[in-house]
Amino acid sequence: MAQAANGRPVLSVRDVRTRFRTPGGGVVHAVNGISFDLHAGELLGVVGESGSGKSVTMLSLLRLLPEPPAEIAAGQALLEGEDLLALEPARLRRVRGGKVGFIFQDPMASLNPVLSVGYQLVEPLRTHLGLSRRAARRRAAALLELVGIPAAESRLRDFPHQFSGGMRQRVMIAMALACDPKVLIADEPTTALDATIQAQILDLLQRLRRERGMAIVWITHDLGVVAGLADRVMVMYGGQAVERADVRSLYARPQHPYTRSLLRALPRPDGGGRGERLASIPGQPPILGRAPDSCPFAPRCAHAFARCREQNPPLAPVGADHAVACWFDADAGVPRAA
Amino acid sequence: MRGCPVQHEPLLAVENLTKHFPVMRGVLRRQVGAVQAVDGLDFAIQPRETLGLVGESGCGKSTAGRVILRLEAPTAGRVIFRGEDITRLEGEALRRLRPHMQMIFQDPQDSLNPRMTVGSIVSEPLREHGAAKGAALRERVEALLEAVGLDPAFANRYPHEFSGGQRQRIGVARALALHPEFIVCDEPIAALDVSIQAQVVNLLKELQERFGLTYLFISHDLRMVRHVADRVAVMYLGKIVELATSDALYEEPLHPYTRALLSAVPTHDPEREARRTRIILEGDVPSPAAPPPGCRFSTRCPVAVPECSRREPEWRTLRPGHRVACHLAE
How far apart are the first and last CA of chain B? Predict the structure, then answer.
């Protein structure tokens, strides 16, 4: 994998915090101080359950959340040195779809059903790259071909409903790639797809990453999916990064009790343990109505002790490229020395 | 349950089960073709067994489940349940059959009426079939909620007050209300987070042991199917292409489609992932309204020979208990 831990990151995110105001006058602390670096050609897996803040974090970076009720309270997101969170709206629009591409889970929700696929591909090419109508159309056809849509040229005239699910997801990917983004944010891009189509899409994205040095943020709820894809993984819980590591040490030596439970909840790949119960995590994810001043996982954690309910553990290094936010030392089986 | 005794009379058997949906066109609504959703299925399920039915969307696995439960009438073939041919049952006879066979749906959000309390959702089948009323009905609902791990005090709440996993438990409680023997689980965990999937799968196993249930477990998640199913059937474009015990199917898949599907199953082991080779199939699944001639998989098959697009493969038993429909498998 194109691992480039040295050199300046393409995207550098520092301490992003996002809150939502609820109609009842309450506050939901959805993202509580997320930081990460993303290098060219790197794939970062962001893993968490629904409500863990993984999608909201990425939407915050591009200011794609309605404000209000959302409010980005703090943080910095440097894309090639330019802070996305401080940009003018006009400049921000140029970055979205230009330097940063987005793929969402449900392609039907992000394609406009009454415009032809060709129109939806051509338009950003003209605005972002300033191409002429003809040049943009040529490039649009080339993009559809790139993502493996047969008879690309003639399919530009078709509308989204004329494509199958897998083909629509490819159209979305073509749109996200239209302007050669530096960073591609993929939010559960394959969950709605069948296994053989998933394999095709994964293959395509891996190729683009190798050939163009595109950096990818891959958001998923399934630790199994990113094991074969990611260079580094960030596990999120309750709006925080609870563990961050290179992919091998995360799976070989998971440190956070939440990461460990997530891995144990997966059936064993060799089929062993059939008939046995899977380890499930008791309880429900937190509602995040309070300021994050204690460990968000403490109520569901088998190792929680007094300190976990009083102080929120920061991410602290436990290895070369491995950090965990936990007061309990999983290897030693005792609380960490203060 | 492992190593199911084969000498038993099967609880359910289907023979040449076929469901075609007519395609109508023009002002006169003339039939111009048929979507061959399910085409000639043959298999049996033993009591207390879990049969996994896997395949991609549009392969006909859900339609198969609905036809088996007689929610749809088959176009051809037979469904035999507890030794009785139920293919042509209608009216009161069909209604009397219903309590024995139930279904759990994929999306608990869509399958639970948002205006009904949890109590009335779970008790509806009991009231509908006159199985209990008054205090006995309330007691039965409480017992059902307890059996699926929900607080009986939740009976007065509405579905939106619950998380996805809890809603799926409500759907399971409703399916259990009439003491069924056979349950079709149609993608019961597809809409849930991984940690919640484990809870629901554990619950289904526990209930199977406790009540002696038999499951048809329909899913596209091959990883989880291996964990829950005793035997697995793989469907492609309306046909079963391979059927074997879970271990045999995953360890030694004989059909090229099964091999491709299995090569895409994630393993949550980066070392293993780095070494694996994915079999990438070209193109999309063809339309079931115009399936390719010969073997239906031949248009995407990486090892197809000319024979494959000319002659349909037989449904052969290659090893004891391991059947496959492929000219080349040996």
Answer: 29
